[in-house]
Structures are given as C-alpha cells and as structure tokens.
Amino acid sequence: MLVEADLPDDVDALRALVLEQARKIESADAEVERLRTILEAFRRHRFGRRSEQLDPDQLQLGLEDVEAALAEAEVAAEAKAGRPHSDRVRKTNRGSLPSHLERIEQVVDIEDKACPCCGGALHQIGEDVAERLDVVPTTFRVLVTRRPRYGCRACEGTVVQAPAPPRIVEGGIPTEALIAQVLVSKYADHLPLYRQAQIDARQGIRLDRSTLADWVGRAAWYLRPLRDHILEQLRRSERLFADETTAPVLDPGRGRTKTGQLWAYARDDRPWGGSDPPIVAYVYAPDRKAERPHAHLGDFAGILQVDGYGGYTALARRRQQIRLAFCWAHVRRKFYDLADTSPVSTEALRRIALLYAIEDDVRGSSAERRRAVRAERSRAIVDDLHQYLVARGRQVSAKSKLGEAIRYALTRWDGLVRFLDDGRIDLDSNTVERSIRPLALNRKNALFAGSDEGGDNWAVIATLIECCKLGAINPHAWLTDTLTSLANGHPIQSVGDLMPWFDVA
After folding, report:
1. What torsion do the CA atoms of 222, 227, 228, 232 make, to the nearest 10 degrees?
2. pLDDT (tens digit, 9 = 90+) per residue, 221-249?
3. Can you tell me the distance from the alpha carbon of 270 to that of 200, in angstroms, rounded to the nearest whole number?
4. How far apart are CA 432 and CA 440, in angstroms?
5. Higher confidence at residue 154 or residue 8?
C-alpha cells in the first residue's frame, strides 16, 4: 500500500506511478474475472446432463479450490488498489450465530474519556457489537466484541470509539483460530471442506463449503510470503533434498483432470548434528518439465539429493555449482522387486543392507565421524558391490528387469558414492519422501485440486503445516498466532520473525 511518503514530487514520475498502479489493478481485476468464469463453468457442469456430471464429491472438492483462489485474487486486487484497511465495508452479523453457543465478551474501549475538543467528560451514546465464530477444538463458542461509542454533551457531533480489531476475513464471523482449525483439518488431517461443513452442522453451525473455501483462499494470500521466505532459506542451504509427486488438477474445459506436480524441497541436518532447523517447502507447477527445479532453486549451490528423475541430472549439467547425490533406497527397490527370482538381486540387497547397518551406527554423529566411519567400513562394501554389478551386468540381457536394475545403479554411481566423502550426505532421500507422504494422503482424500491456483494454495499451506510438524510445533497454535499477527499488519519484510521453527507463546 502506498503512503504519502512514497509519492514522488515530480509530475511525470507521479503520472507514471498512477499508470502503473492502474495497470496492476486492471491485471488483478482480470484475474478475478478469469476465476469467476472457471467457477461458473463448474456450476454449469454441476447441473448438466447426467452423462456429463462428475461425481458430486469430486465436484465439491474442485469448487472449493476455485473459490479459495477467487478469494485470494480478490484480496490481492484490494491490496493492489491500495484500499485502506479501515475503509473496507464492515458487515453486521449480530445475532446470526446460534444462541446456544457460549458468548465470550471482550470490550475494546478508548483509554482517554476526555473530549478531544474541549476536555469535558465523554459519556457512552451507544456501541458496535460484532459476533465472530471461534472454536476451541471440537467446541464452538462465540466471541462478542463490544466497542462503546462516546459523545460529548458540550460538543455537538463529537463521537469517539476505539477502532475495531483487524481480521483476516473483514466483516466475517471467523476468528483467526477458527480459520487455523479449517486449514489444519484440510491440509494436516486431510479432511476436505465439504466434510468439515458436515461435521460442523452436527453442532448446529451451518457453514457452506464455499464460505470455508473463501477463508482458505484469504489465509493463503496472507501466508504466501512465509512460504516464499522458507523457500529462500532453502536456497541458501548447502545441502537439500528434492522430490516431486503428482497433483491431479481439474480441467473444467475438458471435464477431466490434468496432471500437475507438487515439488518438495527439504533440509534436515539432524542426522549429523547440524544446527539449522528442519524445513520443507512445496511448490506447485502444472507440469514436470526439467526447467521447474531450475526455477524453484534459484541460485542454490551445493549438494542436491534426489531420486533418478532425469530432470535433476539435466539441472546439474546446466549448473556446475550443483552436485547430485543419489538415493540408495531407490537402488534397493529395483533389486527388491526381483529378489524372489534372482540370486544376483538377493546378493545386491544383502550388501546394501550392510551399508544401512553402518548408517544406523553413526546416525546422530558429527559429519566428520560419519565420514571417517564410512571410509573405514562402507567404502570397501561399495567398491566390491560396484565390481559385482559390473561383472553380472555383462552376463545378463540389458533389456531384462535385472539388467535394468544394474544399469540404474551403475549409471548413477558417482552420485551414489558421494556420501563416502561427505558426512553430511545421507544414504537415501527418505527425508523428503516422508514429506511427500502427507501430500499423497491429501490427494487420496481430495482426489484432485480444483485449479492451478488451488494447487498453489495447497503448496503454500502444506509448507507451513509440515514445517510445524518437523519442528514439533502445534500447527493450530502457530497458525492462530501467525494469522493474528498478519491481520494486525506485521511488516512483510519481517516475516522471518514468524517462521514455524519459532514456537508460539
């Protein structure tokens, strides 16, 4: 938001600034209109001929992501338009919530009850009362905020009142704690919004799924800078894990889903006693093109531990400052599938198991000790295994499953043995694969995202929740505290103070 101090004195510069702001507003309005068009397409599809209809549950899930993206776009448009927080129209909701819910009243009052005009005593002439829906996990309650208004008997027209506390959803009923509960239920507990609405209805709370989707989208807009900050922190690391998984996204134009991708980038230095907190960041992309990790990682320079996806190899060829470390677990899986019928696979698995036994002994040790133990015990096993696979590879068909397993290992050997010379490198990429599993669970329950924007919201919120889980921080408490801080205008340049590796009070 522009303030007076930001405005230039030069007329031409001021004209250019106004034109730029107008362009941004026009762009934001166009994005809102595009999302509205998608939403209308969904609704038409819902009431189309039976042969054209999707499963109702699938449709609900698609709609919630589009509506969340629309809410986010509307907030972004408001922000680009520079509309002051206090100028937004406040909706009244007094008495709209069930009477049986507990009311917790808080009074937001002025400190000085002397008339600002004459100094005389102010007297209360009324008050504004707003009700917002709050939640203590599994128990709803209503927070009632009273803001008395004061007038002066001596000064006609003087009215003094404390400003209303800021909110994530202006004029809406949810507290930040309730929004946090919706986010945790959807992205940590894998409970789609329409199911949350059904659960809430059992307590007499009638919340439309689209209303919940609006809350999610607005929260995602506020939280996106935090995800971006985490991704930037990862880029500055010396060693990262990377992986990706499919994210089906509804393509309303074709009445089917398309395959997007959720990319995961993680850091966990705990196995070698590093001091940096474990974190993960997810980034949505509409495809699996090799340039995606190139864009996501920015100027990252260091060791990237990955599976066998060729896009990472292409990335390392383009950027010499990136060295790949490959995953022994993926090598093991290739041979495991053949173990029942192949003595060669059984022998390869036995030798790989010896490597994992050594890793169990050094887990949690310093990087230097891990390197020393590996040099003493693991290197000989690795060298012998290489000779064994080379010899057996000459004896089997390259087109056989065993030949493919051997070739998979040998063509990645330089990256597989990199752990021998660097105690910071793990034997596998299971760290990031564990961070992928929650996405898979959410995908299983949600079936697909409703739009590319919905996939991006998924990535943003999942990043923050998974970072909380990695740091053993209660995601509901952290999100409540963080959303409250953001609603109160926490400066964007200081989002590092809000990171989910700092516990909340």
Report:
1. 150
2. 999 999 999 999 999 999 999 999 888 77
3. 40
4. 13
5. 154
Q: How far apart are CA 199 and CA 228, in angstroms?
A: 33
Tell me whether residue 106 is exposed, middle or buried, using C-beta atoms within 10 angstroms of its C-beta: 0 to 12, 13 to 18, 19 or more: exposed
* Block residue for tokens 């003094």: 160
Q: How many CB atoms lie within 10 A of CB 19?
A: 10
Question: What are the residues whose beta carbons fall under 8 Å from the beta carbon of 118, sequence distance 6 or more?
Answer: 152, 154, 155
DSSP class of 7: S
Contacts of 353 (CB under 8 A, 6+ apart): none
Read off the tokens for 368: 């230097």
> What pLDDT shows up at residue 501?
84
In angstroms, how far is CA 497 from the centroid of its own chain? 18
How far is it, in rounded angstroms, from Cα 261 to Cα 437? 14
Place of tokens 């894998």: 190
What DSSP letter does each residue of 465-484 carry, written as one string? HHHHHHTT--HHHHHHHHHH
Scan for tokens 């507003």, then name that residue: 25
Nearest to 307 by CA among 258, 263, 343, 372: 263
Q: Which residue has the tokens 């004896």?
A: 395
Cα(476)–Cα(463) distance, rounded to whole angstroms?
A: 14
Q: What pLDDT was estimated at residue 52?
A: 41
Nearest-angstrom CA–CA distance, 194 and 480: 22
Could you give the CA distance from residue 258 to residue 256 in angstroms, rounded to a whole number? 7
Question: What would the pLDDT profile of 61-106 be if each residue is shown by its tens digit?
Answer: 566 777 787 787 778 777 777 665 545 555 555 557 888 888 999 9
Q: Which residues lie across from 265 on neighbouring strands?
A: 242, 281
Residue 219, H or E segment? helix 209-235
Q: Answer for the pair 164, 145: CB distance below 8 angstroms, yes or no.
A: yes
Q: Is the pLDDT of residue 58 over 90?
A: no
Whether pLDDT at 504 is above 50: no
Identify the CA nearest to 311 among candidates 243, 373, 237. 243
Candidate ranges 1-15, 82-96, 436-450; pick with highest mean pLDDT: 436-450
Other beta carbons within 10 angstroms of residue 352's beta carbon come to 21
Length of the chain: 505
Exposed e or buried b per residue across 148-182, where buried means at least 16 C-beta atoms within 10 angstroms of its C-beta: bebbbeeeeebebbbebeebbbbebbbbbbbbbbb
Residue found by looking up tokens 């919905």 in the block: 454
Determine the pLDDT at residue 496.
92
